[in-house]
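Sat 14:20. Reprocessing the chain from the morning session after the first attempt stalled halfway. Input below, unchanged.
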Amino acid sequence: MELHERYLPEGQQLFQVLVNGEFFSERYPRESRYLELKDITTLDLKTISDQEMARVLLREAGSQAQVLCRAIEESARLFRVAPEDEANRHFARLLEALRWLLQVGQQAAQVLQVELAEVPHPQGGNIFPFLKNLRQLVEEMVEISEVQDYILLADLMEYELFPLVREWQSILCHLAG
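Finished this time. Tokens:
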């Protein structure tokens, strides 16, 4: 964080750090504070523009959509066969992952200076109707979970949410360029 604030030019993000020619990434916060300066012979920093970082995150989010699709299938299965507390925990994690995936798209669009609602849909038009439909579906799913109609919730995840997440994945990849 200190490197970023003190030494990187405006509009640049730290992308990769090589210490003594080897890739370095902190496994826990502030791990780098425990590196001994006497052990460092070279320090190479690779930066990329904010826009390129947004595109990298969009591509990564596209990959994470695959993971989310598998989680949707698993969550639907759990609501059909597992104890409800286990299924509900999985559903809560699924909603959090979906929220993250949507935020990545929103924040990347801001960095790329694109109005998200006006992003072209890969199948034509803009994505505003898609976003509205997704928001309504998530609200409906939360309401259904509150009244504990778990079979309907599983069906909604499997037959409506799953295709919408696949569509969002396509939108993110399109936005990444």
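The chain is about 65% helix and 10% strand.
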